[in-house]
Amino acid sequence: MKLREIAHSRTGDKGNTSNISVIAYDEGHYPLLLAQVTSARVRAHFAGVVEGEVVRYELPSIAALNFVMTQTLGGGVTRSLALDAHGKSLSSALLDLEIEDDLST
């Protein structure tokens, strides 16, 4: 299934760094997020976009993850000619990630 089936997302930016939050619709899906939406998977999903590191922060009290991705926005809003200089479309792209619908795999 697609990540978008169990979570929604929001992005932010500062310079050449993007952050993406992934928030479970139902807190019962948080263990799936923890197990399957890792920094390594997010970095691989954004191969060619993220040139720096991807750090994952866990927020269990709100069933959310926050990913901070460095060297992602082509130099940042004031330095990039990219159509999406703020990286707002990255949240939609991340929600396209395929995940398993249970923890047994």
Report on this model:
The protein is of the alpha+beta class and 105 residues long. The chain has a single domain (3-75, 83-94), classed as 2-Layer Sandwich (Alpha-Beta Plaits), CATH 3.30.70. It has helices spanning 30-36, 39-45, 89-94, and strands at 7-14, 17-24, 54-59, 64-69. The protein has a 4-stranded antiparallel beta sheet. A hairpin with a 4-residue loop joins strand 3 (54-59) and strand 4 (64-69). The longest helix has 7 residues, at 30-36. It starts with 6 loop residues before the first strand and ends in an 11-residue tail after the last helix. 24% of the residues are buried.
In summary, what is this structure?
This protein has 105 residues and is of the alpha+beta class. The protein is built from three helices and four strands, in the order E-E-H-H-E-E-H. It has helices spanning 30-36, 39-45, 89-94; strands at residues 7-14, 17-24, 54-59, 64-69.
